[in-house]
């Protein structure tokens, strides 16, 4: 029988990008430190890089909140948008290595430099490795400081999973965490997607979160001998 307190409820959960929600660990401590040191950066711009799902977007939003800035996708702006973007104290351009209007980025960089404002660019690799075609933009972004975020380790992933489950009012035992950590993709994005899927399954089946339920969600056909 399922106790009322164990039945997960749909609260319309939204991803939390606040500074308080950012989990600091050895994999991201250096990058987090750079964000906290703003505006005492040695240059007007910073490159933040790391694999997909490592927490770049969260840290970028933390920076935007601290600096009063705006966050824009690299493919979401052109030259006509630059003047309005540059009115903000800082601008974050996310995924700038995956396709960007280079003329617009070059114009934005120059305008922010002229007005003494700040630029944060994110990508999966450091800006010096982006293969930009515009020589002047390549030269400028290759020269800015860049800090990387490593893929999360088990300790950080466990802390994240606990928080994600708690945010959704879901109770989980250590056996569930151990099962998930052994089998999940090693990324923040994967953790969020998996917890969302487990939440949906628990709601649909009106069941608590147990290893058998998680196994169903993860489509793992190999049962554990101690699952009952």
Written overview of the protein:
By secondary structure, this protein is α/β, with parallel strands linked by helices. The protein contains nine helices and five strands. It has helices spanning 29-37, 56-67, 82-85, 102-114, 135-142, 154-167, 174-183, 188-205, 211-218, and strands spanning 45-49, 70-73, 90-94, 118-123, 146-148. A five-stranded parallel beta sheet has the order 2-3-4-1-5, with helices on both faces. Helix 1 runs parallel beside helix 2, helix 6 (154-167) packs parallel to helix 8 and helix 8 (188-205) crosses helix 9. The longest helix is centred in the last third of the chain and has 18 residues, at 188-205. The chain is elongated, with a radius of gyration of 21 Å. The chain starts with 28 loop residues before the first helix and ends in a 10-residue tail after the last helix. Mean pLDDT is 87; it is low at 1-13 and 221-228.
Strand order of the largest sheet: 2-3-4-1-5
Global Rg: 21 Å
Helix content: 40-55%
Chain-averaged pLDDT: 87
Low-pLDDT segments, ≥5 res = 1-13, 221-228
- Strand content range: 5-15%
Shape: elongated
Task: Give the number of DSSP strands.
Answer: 5
Distance between the termini: 14 Å
Q: What does the main sheet amount to?
A: 5 strands, parallel
Helices and strands, with pairings:
Layout (H helix, E strand, L loop, with lengths): L28 H9 L7 E5 L6 H12 L2 E4 L8 H4 L4 E5 L7 H13 L3 E6 L11 H8 L3 E3 L5 H14 L6 H10 L4 H18 L5 H8 L10
Parallel strand pairs: 1-4, 1-5, 2-3, 3-4
Write a concise keyword list for the protein shown above:
disordered C terminus; 9 helices; 5 strands; 228 residues; alpha/beta; disordered N terminus
């Amino acid at each position: 029988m399922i106790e009322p307190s164990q039945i997960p409820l749909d609260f319309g959960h939204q991803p939390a990008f606040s500074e308080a929600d950012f989990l600091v660990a050895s994999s991201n401590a250096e990058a987090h430190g750079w964000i906290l040191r703003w505006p005492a950066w040695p240059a007007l711009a910073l490159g933040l890089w790391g694999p997909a799902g490592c927490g770049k977007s969260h840290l970028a939003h933390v920076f935007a909140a601290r600096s009063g800035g705006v966050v824009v996708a690299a493919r979401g702006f052109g030259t006509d948008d630059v003047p309005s973007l540059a009115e903000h104290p800082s601008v974050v351009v996310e995924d700038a290595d995956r396709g960007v209007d280079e003329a617009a980025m070059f114009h934005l960089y120059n305008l922010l430099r002229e007005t003494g404002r700040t630029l944060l660019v994110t990508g999966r690799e450091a800006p010096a490795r982006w293969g930009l075609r515009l020589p002047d933009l390549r030269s400028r972004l290759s020269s800015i400081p860049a800090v990387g975020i490593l893929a999360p380790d088990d300790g950080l992933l466990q802390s994240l999973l606990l928080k994600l489950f708690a945010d959704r009012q879901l109770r989980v035992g250590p056996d569930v965490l151990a099962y998930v950590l052994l089998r999940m993709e090693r990324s923040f994005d994967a953790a969020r997607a998996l917890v969302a899927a487990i939440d949906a399954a628990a709601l649909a089946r009106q069941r608590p979160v147990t290893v058998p339920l998680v196994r169903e969600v993860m489509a793992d056909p190999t049962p554990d001998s101690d699952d009952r």
